[in-house]
Amino acid sequence: MMSSSQQYLVFLMLLLFITRCVLLCTTDPTDGFINVPLTEDNFEIQRPYDVPLEERYSYKNGTRRLWVYADDKPHDPNSHTQPRTEIRIHGLDYSSGVWQFEGHAFVPNGTSGATILQIHGASHGATTIILRIYGGDMRYYSGQVMATDLYDKWFRINLIHDVDGGNVTVFLDGAQVFTTGDQGPGDLYFKCGVYAAPENISYYMESRWRDIKIYKK
Ligand SMILES: *[C@@H]1O[C@H](CO)[C@@H](O)[C@H](O)[C@H]1NC(C)=O
Ligand SMILES: *[C@@H]1O[C@H](CO)[C@@H](O)[C@H](O)[C@H]1NC(C)=O
Ligand SMILES: *[C@@H]1O[C@H](CO)[C@@H](O)[C@H](O)[C@H]1NC(C)=O
Ligand SMILES: *[C@@H]1O[C@H](CO)[C@@H](O)[C@H](O)[C@H]1NC(C)=O
C-alpha cells in the first residue's frame, strides 16, 4: 500500500508527464500499428511490356528507382491503360481492417502528371486514392493540392486506409496533410512508382523509394 504522500508524489509526477507530453510529445502515424515483414516477393514490378526491367527500374544501395516515358507501352499488351513503372505490393491484398503504407520518396524536378502512390481497388471505380505530382505539387487525383514544393528532396509518406471506417489519410514527414472518404471495400493493394495521368504529363517521369514498409492494425 502507498502512503497518501507517496500517492500524492505519483500524482504530481503523472501531472508533470502529461503536461510535458501535451507540449512536446509527437505522435507518429505508425503508432499502434504492427509492421508486416516484407521480402522481395512482395515487390512485383509492372513496366512497359516490351522493354527489359533494367531499362525502367533499378535497385541500388537501398533505393528503388522507377521511370517511364509518355510514349511507352502499357504493362500488358492487352491493356489500354497509360504507361507505368510501378511496384505493386504483392501478397498483401486486403479488404478490411486498417492498413498503412510507409516510404521515403524522391521526385526529380520535371516529372509531372505522374501518380507516385495509389491504393488500387474500390467498390466503385478502379482506385481508392491516387497521389499525383503536378509541377512539384501533390494532388488528390487532379484535384485538391495537399502539398507543394516536393521536387528534388526526400520526403516520408504515410498512407493509412481505414477500410472499416471508410477513410484514407495522408501524412508527409509525419504531419497529416489530407484525409477523405474511401470508395468502399474491394480487392485493395498499394502501388508506388510512376503511372502516367490521362492528361498534362511530362515526357519523362520518375520517382525513387527507400524503406518501404507495410503496417496494419
Ligand atoms: C547509400 O545510401 C546512404 C543512405 O542510406 C547514403 O548515405 C550513401 O551516400 C549512399 N551511397 C551511395 C554510394 O550512393
Ligand atoms: C525545376 O527546373 C526548372 C527548369 O530548369 C527551374 O526553372 C526550376 O526552378 C526548378 N525547380 C526547382 C524546385 O528546383
Ligand atoms: C476514419 O474513420 C474512423 C471510424 O469512423 C475514425 O475513428 C477515424 O477518426 C477516421 N479517420 C480520419 C482521419 O478521419
Ligand atoms: C491540363 O492543362 C490545361 C492547360 O494548362 C488545363 O486547362 C487543364 O485543366 C489541365 N488538365 C488537368 C486534368 O489538370
Automatic annotation (TrEMBL):
SUPFAM superfamilies: Concanavalin A-like lectins/glucanases. The keyword Signal applies. Keywords: Signal. Residues 41-215 form the Alginate lyase domain. InterPro entries: Alginate_lyase_2, ConA-like_dom_sf. Residues 1-24 form the signal peptide. Pfam families: Alginate_lyase2 (PF08787). This is Citrate-binding protein-like. It comes from Sesamum indicum (Oriental sesame). The lineage of its organism: Eukaryota, Viridiplantae, Streptophyta, Embryophyta, Tracheophyta. The gene is LOC105159598.
